[in-house]
Each structure stands twice: as structure tokens, then as C-alpha cells.
Amino acid sequence: MSISSEIVAPPPPSGWKRALSKARSNPTTAVGAVICLLIMAAAIFAPWLAPYDPAEQDIFNRLQSPGGDYLLGTDQFGRDILSRLMWGARISLIVSLGAIFAAAIIGGAIGLVSGYIGGKFDLFVMQVMDVLLSFPSLILGLIVVALLGPELVNLVVAIALTAIAPFARVARAPTLALKERAFVEAGRALGFSHTRVLFRHILPNIMSEVMVMGTLWLATAVRVEASLSFIGLGVKPPTATWGGMTRDGFENILDAPWLAIFPGLAILFLVLGLNMVGDGLRDATDPKLRNE
Hints:
With 292 residues, the protein is mostly helical. 71% of the residues lie in helices and 0% in strands. The protein contains 11 helices and no strands. The two termini are 35 Å apart.
């Protein structure tokens, strides 16, 4: 048989492709992904999907119960709850995605460089990270927002600061192991710069841990943003936020319980969906759980 007629086996799928395939086959991960996608779609297309202006007040239709022209009812100012939930999803997603993206880059870079250099530098950096970790996420975010002011950018900064230390820890641990591997030693022997070794050889091998951590911390960021808004340190009214809507609902909890129930359920479903996706990705990228 000639070589040209031989059947050449296709190359094996990459680790990430296998992981994503396994995650898609997990029903829990699929449910979480659907929840997240639906909320993201509602936030992105809010200008077209929302039936009313989220800031428009109609005092004659205040505290309308769910149903009729107002599917989820109205608040004490006559504003449509459904429209405010859609627009509020934008704030939650913008703040959480922006904060976690910044924390992943900054914290990941800190952990990567610290683990690669090692020695006293690594010890000092990790002690600083331990100081940040000693503050609960909500308390640290509360301190930063109280100092900088309740603005959208300040919320992103506050939540990012709370997540830098965990990302640094997650990036540092595999870097310590990888820098002693043969392929890294071979790169140094060939005269590769430290920058090339870090970003071309070590970074791609720790991206899975950082990305899984990012998915799980998105849920924490959503919860922290809602908590800060609930205590009045979120984006200023009349901008709709889920935490602010929940706080306003408690003022009329006996007369109109839906004012607090619906934004609370929105926070619950988004956090639940993100945790489902994060758990599925973690299980799919863990070699022990993949039986490899």
C-alpha cells in the first residue's frame, strides 16, 4: 500500500477543546450558560426590549401589581419594574466584567512575575497579597467606594481591588511548578528572554486556571456590586441597579413585595448561572476530574 493511500489519523483535540466539549455535555453547565446568556441578551438589547423608559415616572400608576400593561408591576414612582431590571442588568454586567477583567490582568501579571522571580521578591509580594486577602470583599469594596465616591468607575476599581489577590495566588502556584519544567529550562538554555519565557511558554499553560477563577469571581463581583448598591454606595439614582431596586423595595415590602422579590431573584439567577458555568469549567479543566 502506498503512503498516499494510508489513512492519516486526525490530530488529537487540544486540552481546551476537550474541556469545552466536556463542559457542554454537563447539563448543569448548560443550564448555567443558558441563564447567563438570557440575562446578557436582556441587558444588551434593553433599549429595544424594555417596554418603557426605566426612568420615566407615572405617579398615577404607582405600585401597580404584576400583570396587565406592567408585566412585573411598578415601583413607588410608577416606573416599570421589568424595564428597570433589564437596564439594571447592564450595570451589574459592566461593573462585574470590567472589574474581573482588570483584576485578572493585574493579579495574573503579579502572580506570574512573582512566582517566576521567586526569592525575597516573591515573599514580599505574597505578604502584600495576604494583607489584601485579610479584608472581606464587601468591606474592602466599601472602604474604596466610601473614599472615592459612588461612581461607576469607582465601583469597578473597588471590586477589582478585592479580586487582585486571589488572581495573583492562582497565577503564582502553577508558575512555581512550570518554571522548573524541562521546556522552560530548554528555553533559557537557548537564550530566550525572561519576557518570552513568561508570556510565550508559561502564560498559556496557566490561562485555564485564571479563566476558571474569573468565571467564579464574576458571581462574587455581581454580589458585591448589588450589596454596595443596596447600602447606597452604588451608581446614583435614578439609574436602575438591582441592589438599589431591592433596597427601595424594602420600604414597601408589606404593600408591594414584588419590588424587592424581582430584583432579588435577578441577582440570584445571575449568580447561580455564573457559579454553574464556573463549576463546570473547573471540573472540565481539572485532569483528576477528567480521569487523565
